[in-house]
Amino acid sequence: MGSNIWVFAFCCLFCLPLSSQVTVSAKRLQYPLIATQTDNYLYRINLKTNETQTAIRGLGFDLTGSTDLTDIVGLRLYSSGTDSIINASNKKLLATVRPETPTGAFRFKASLDSTVYWWVSVQMYTGTKLEHLLHFTPTRLETADSSISIDPKNTDTPYRMGVALRKHRDDGVHTYRIPALVTSTQGTLLAAYDVRRDGSRDLQGDIDIGISRSTDGGQTWEPMQIALDMKNWGGLPEKFNGVSDASLLVDQKTGTLFVFGLWMHGVINPDGKWVTDLTETSTDWNHQWRNKGSQPGFGVKETSQFLMAQSTDDGKTWSKPVNLTQMCKKQEWWLWAPAPGNGIQLTDGTLVIPTQGRDAQGETFSNITYSKDGGQTWQTSQPARTNTTECAVVELPDGGLMLNMRDNRNRKEKGGANGRAVAVTYDLGENWQRHPSSNGLLPEPVCMGSLLAADGRLFFSNPNSKYRRQHITVKTSTDQGHSWPEKNWLLLDQGHGSGYSSLTKINEEYLGILYEGSQADLIFQKIPLTSLVSDKP
Questions:
Q1: pTM recorded for the entire structure
Q2: Which intervals hold domain Sialidase (predicted)?
Q3: pLDDT tens for residues 384-393?
Q4: For position 100, which CATH number holds?
């Protein structure tokens, strides 16, 4: 976590009176450990005393269970004084230690005369393996005349390494958003994302689709390349030729990779009229999901365009884009667009991607688009449900396709009916039926989520909240989505971010996730499949 970012603490509270004069409470923090950061915060500790002065001499800790103590550059203990949040202006270093054994302590002298907040952070070596885990538990507070044990809860939960794949201002880019992640037939990880060069907002803007490759399971990544960029098409500046919302797809039979994106040429104003005479200094802006920002028809001055590019060399190079708009979009629809994330290949070889749009009345919907000839031609299905948008698709063991959808109804619904909309089709989307888990089992703050089928299980990731884009969590279902028991939830990042995520199976042992987290624009983590299903009753 950068020193200029305030840290909020949420989970795993324990509170013990240390004596009649001193009380300590601590909150465990769950963030990905980023090796390029000096401070990855692990705990917030609050001390209170009713005495004039209490002499503090140290804080003990236990690292038992950590994979390798040599991964640790150092542990740091800070004070933020009476402030319950920490930032660059209020933090004061109390002690630093580089542990050589699993048990140790911060040694320092301090005087406690009121409420004070401490923060424990760790710095990891840049070469730390993503599979390595860190365990940290505060064990005792040492005063001048006593050593009092602390007995925190949930200490079996490890801290996991993460890669800050894309950070704010990397390569001179303002913001990176909208992750997509797949594993190629060669075992290469391909990550796609919005390269928002000038600002953080959605289309329209100077936005391209970027690609990053990893050939070692996500440990290291090659420099960013650009897969979709419409440059100055039609004589307009790049800020009026943005491409966004990437989806990735792998043809397991041929190894061909596909990237899809939504291109907006110029600006269609709130009245549905294409704006003329745009220049580099023009400030006109609209979005395909707002008012009449995309309209019926097929032309670039009528509606946003659906693009596809291919790679036949494992993602090293990409073809010129093909425009699928007229092939698939219904003329009366206001919009037809990729749903960001990833597509799938069915057991019969059919290629399927999740898509979304706006119907003849401008109402939003989710659906699928598919190809039976290896990506040469495509067809789009009937909407699965209205008032939904970004979605994810998997094939079920019985041959059905499950579509898991962001549901706009959840903007107002914060009760028991809050949850992702889920529908199933057995005829490639000509007909849909509501799944029993719909609107109730998978809470959301109205945000994109990811769904993956692997090893007879379903895996789902999103911000596990009805209210805010925080608590990025991976959940596992062993009964094809009929239940998602809490014992099979894995919290990765409790902090607030943009909240989008994309899941892939890396190999027989690991799942990969790329998400918009609290520590960077895009974070990659590698999770053992065995850690996603609990054997607890």
A1: 0.95
A2: 187-511
A3: 999 999 999 9
A4: 2.60.40.1290
Sign of CA dihedral 169, 174, 178, 181: negative
| Secondary structure class of 80 (helix, strand, coil) | coil
β-bridge partners, 526: 512
- Amino acid identity at 14: F
Confidence at residue 1, expressed as pLDDT on a 0 to 100 scale:
42
Instruction: Give the integer Cα–Cα distance in Å for 422 and 79.
Output: 47
Domain count, the chain: 2
What does the alpha-carbon distance between residue 322 and residue 419 come to, in Å, rounded to a whole number? 36
149 and 188 part of one domain: no
Given 390, 395, 486, 508, the catalytic residue: 390
Instruction: Tell me the pLDDT band of 149, cut-offs 50, 70 and 90.
Output: confident
SS3 325: helix
**Residue 2 within a domain:** no
Q: Which residues contact 468 (CB under 8 A, 6 or more apart)?
A: 445, 496
Last residue of a domain, one of 157, 178, 213: 157
What is the torsional sign of CA 503, 506, 512, 514? negative
Task: Provide the sign of the torsion angle of the four alpha carbons 74, 80, 84, 85, taken in this order.
Answer: negative
- One-letter amino acid for residue 13 of the chain: L
Q: Could you say which DSSP state residue 327 is in?
A: H
CB crowding 82-119: b at 16 or more within 10 Å, else e: eeeebeeeebeebbebebeeeebbbebebebeeebbbb
Q: How many whole angstroms separate alpha carbon 336 and alpha carbon 330?
A: 8
Tell me the two tokens of residue 392: 């994810």
Q: What is the pLDDT of residues 163-174, one digit of tens each?
A: 999 999 999 999
The CA distances from residue 234 to 204, 218, 277, 279, 312, in Å, are 15, 38, 12, 12, 28
Cα separation, 139 vs 161, in Å, equals: 23
Q: Are residues 179 and 324 in the same domain?
A: yes
Distance CA 503, CA 182 (A): 8
Do residues 142 and 214 both lie within one domain? no
- What mean pLDDT do residues 326-338 have? 99
| Residue 465 neighbours by CB distance under 10 Å | 18
| 390 part of the active site | yes
Could you tell me which of 222, 414, 413, 247 has the C-alpha nearest to residue 324?
247
Q: What is the DSSP letter of 268?
A: B
Count the Cβ atoms, other than its own, within 10 Å of residue 422: 24
CA distance 118 to 81: 8
427 Cβ neighbours under 8 A, 6+ residues apart: none
Q: How far is CA 229 from CA 18, 106, 201, 210, 412, in A?
A: 61, 52, 17, 9, 37
